[in-house]
Amino acid sequence: MKKIVSIIETITNVLSGYLPALTVFLLMVMVLGEVLTRYVMQDPLSIADELGGFMLVGITFIGLAYTWKERSHVSVEIVTNMLSPGVRRWLKLFTLLLATVFCWPLIAGSYELLQDSLLFGSRSGSWMRTPLVYPQSVLLVGSVLLLLQLVAEIIKSVLELMNTGGNEK
């Protein structure tokens, strides 16, 4: 089980950690290029708006799993900090299972969106006419990565409960 968790977390680190970081860098370079061509050459590239929007959505969705792994999603712990460690461990497992349940409609909705985009040949409304299936596929990939990370967290939580017997320690 620990090997499965290790593999999932490696995938999360690479695809959900490093890839969005690289995308942020590319977005900065693209915006810099847009600014330089607009103000220095007086001839803008006119791609930063559309591609920048797609990149921001990509950064957000692909980064979901890494953000979960690093416990960086917004959380309110005032109530859980008052609970005993044993109850906290069980509550953590319950919330992980609940998050996994809510992840499935996100995956299904992303998949249906991709199917519709493919069926109708949806394209962006800009001059670039980008086929929307490409930027929308990031929604599905990010959702699946989040699901994988949730599975890893569930495994870790179950192992922790088994090691402590679900009791306080």
Automatic annotation (TrEMBL):
Record key words, sorted: Cell inner membrane, Cell membrane, Membrane, Transmembrane, Transmembrane helix, Transport
Any one cellular-component term (Gene Ontology): plasma membrane
Pfam families: DctQ
Keyword Hydrolase on entry: no
Location of the protein in the cell: Cell inner membrane
PANTHER family, per database record: 2,3-DIKETO-L-GULONATE TRAP TRANSPORTER SMALL PERMEASE PROTEIN YIAM (PTHR35011), TRAP TRANSPORTER SMALL PERMEASE PROTEIN (PTHR35011:SF10)
Regions crossing the membrane: 12-31, 51-69, 90-111, 131-152
Record's bilayer topology term: Multi-pass membrane protein
Keyword Transmembrane helix annotated: yes
Residue ranges of every copy of the Tripartite ATP-independent periplasmic transporters DctQ component domain listed in the record: 27-158
Family label: Belongs to the TRAP transporter small permease family.
Recorded GO MF terms: transmembrane transporter activity
Name of this protein: TRAP-type C4-dicarboxylate transport system, small permease component
